[in-house]
Amino acid sequence: MRFKISLQNRARHTDLVACVGWMTPDELYSCGDDHQLLRWSLLNGETSKVADLPPELFPLEMHWMPRSAISAGAKSQADTIFLLTAADGKFYLINRKGRIEKTVEAHQGAVLTGRWSHDGSSILTGGEDGQVKVWSRSGMLRSTLCQSSGPVYSAAWAPDSDAVLYTAGTSLIVKPLAPNTKPIQWKAHDAIILKVAWNPNSGLIVSGSEDTRYRVWDRYGRQLYSSAQHHHPITGLAWAPDGQLFAVGSYNTLRLCDKAGWCHSLDKPSSGSLYNLAWSSDGTQVAGAGGNGQVLFAHVIETHLEWRNYEATVISRTSIALRNVNNDAKEQLELRDRIIKVSLSHGHLIVVTASQVYVYSTR
Fold first, then answer.
1. DSSP states of 3-68 as a string?
2. What is the CATH number of domain 303-361?
3. pTM score > 0.70 for this model?
4. Over the stretch 170-213, which tens digit does the pLDDT of each residue have?
5. What pLDDT, in 10s, does the model give residues 50-75?
6. Does domain 2-299 have CATH number 2.130.10.10?
């Protein structure tokens, strides 16, 4: 499998793009140092400006409230908000129309990272002041979990939201929320760790550092994989929602890796450093925030399945190539919507798209 990457002919942002976030699998938001909040529609290919952010707001990380946390009475997605951390020591809760609903003074120095809990009931932030804090969904401080000697560049919730993972120089620390519970700490890299991600389904952790390596861990700090050294620091990391794949970003580089850590594809987009990566909720595509003003889109293709004498390969967003290796008979399926999942076994091919499920017999 590999990524199929698309970049704009002309960057829509006029300065560094700091963060990207998917509101739906077909709609992405981005913002950066040009203070523009842009919406990208994959349905019609249009890009529009949602709002101009305040001139003093330099964003660092964006995370949309989980869809499961939106109240049943919400009018469509009108109540959807995202968390935006910023260099001014504040985090902001902003609605989909770009209106700032709440501003919270959170840290001394920049708020380097911020994440909603998986159920949307809490917010986790880490700052330049070395503190890690947990807030209510309305922005009220619940607890200060730790005070590190250096900046907390990245943090993540445990799969059950009962602990948090954060960076501390070259170490990773898992801090349970339960009182009087000892944290787990281990030296993870040879240089400052810039990014960390914890997948809620597989329970695996991936970290990236200025030592130009990425590594995969279990929740107890046991190393499962260490990459070779690369040419540039790892600046972006993100797990696919199902935990089977993750993406790694650095300067003009995007990698697609499986959960065991092995790299399946390496691309060299002209994006500058990829400061932030985000998977769509259906796990089919990744967006990246480029240091040169580009927003990168990467779609997973060439997923290859085999069963007995049959082969199926996803060759584009909406196409599957089929082959019978016994007689070399070939067929191509063209579907109306984006392919999300494919399974081939027991004499049937099952294809899940954005709107339908198709079941084909191998006959």
1. EEEE--SS-SSSS-EEEEEEEETTEEEEEETT-EEEEEETTT--EEEEEEPPTT--EEEEEEPPGG
2. 2.40.10
3. yes
4. 999 999 999 889 999 999 999 999 999 999 999 999 999 999 99
5. 999 999 999 999 999 998 776 544 44
6. yes
